[in-house]
Amino acid sequence: MADETVCPKCGSALNDVTETPTGRKLQRCSKNIWNKETRKSEGCDYVKWIAVEPQILDEKCPKCGSPLVLAVTRFGKKMKKCSKGGWDKVEKKATGCDYVEWINGTTEPLDEKCPDCGKPLVLFTTNAGKCMKKCSTSGWDREARKATGCTYVEWLKAPPPPREENV
Ligand SMILES: [Zn+2]
Ligand SMILES: [Zn+2]
Ligand SMILES: [Zn+2]
């Protein structure tokens, strides 16, 4: 059993639990330092994400009529899923109701700064379910048909299937 309060990478103590603007909780290694000049974090980069209790929605599953819950993946992507759904770790298969509805086209604030201009980054999820981090100052001028503000974009890998998230 690993000690919960010690960084598995370097053995240092972990900092207190902090909450991101999107309501996700994490603990960083105390050896992780944000360098304002280089705008990079230095030292140990270990981050421990803490599972957030799913929020029960006032909506019913179209398959079985059970309440739906709102779940957030570790990429900040949101989905509605059936509260009767589960994951059998031993059998490695889904149990119960498998209804999942992804919530796409969302923009959420992140607790990270743009490496180009230092403004906050946002997590943008396209309708196709792809995720990217982009600068909160970026925009689109519909009349001039050109991008405005900062152009920093970082594409993220596709999020893992929702079932793995539920372990
Ligand atoms: Zn560490
Ligand atoms: Zn269901
Ligand atoms: Zn920027």
Could you characterize what this model shows?
The structure is a single chain. The protein is mainly β and 167 residues long. The longest helix is centred in the last third of the chain and has 4 residues, at 162-165. The protein is flat and about 55 Å long. Strand 3 and strand 4 form a beta hairpin. The strands form six sheets. A four-stranded antiparallel beta sheet has the order 6-7-8-11, with no helix packed on it. The chain has three domains: 1-52, no CATH class; 55-103, no CATH class; 105-159, no CATH class. It starts with 17 loop residues before the first strand and ends with a helix. The protein contains one helix and 17 strands. The structure holds zinc ion (3 copies).
Short account of what is shown:
By secondary structure, this protein is mainly β. The chain is built from one helix and 17 strands.
Report the order of strands and helices. EEEEEEEEEEEEEEEEEH
The Rg value, from CA coordinates, equals: 19 Å
- How large a portion of the residues is in β-strands, by DSSP E? 35-45%
Report the bound ligands by name, code or SMILES: zinc ion
For the record, the count of structural domains works out to 3
Question: What is the strand and helix layout of this fold?
Answer:
Blueprint: E1 18-19, E2 25-28, E3 32-35, E4 40-43, E5 47-50, E6 55-60, E7 67-72, E8 78-82, E9 86-88, E10 93-95, E11 100-103, E12 107-113, E13 120-125, E14 131-135, E15 139-141, E16 146-148, E17 153-155, H1 162-165
This protein binds zinc ion (3 copies).
One zinc ion binds next to loops.
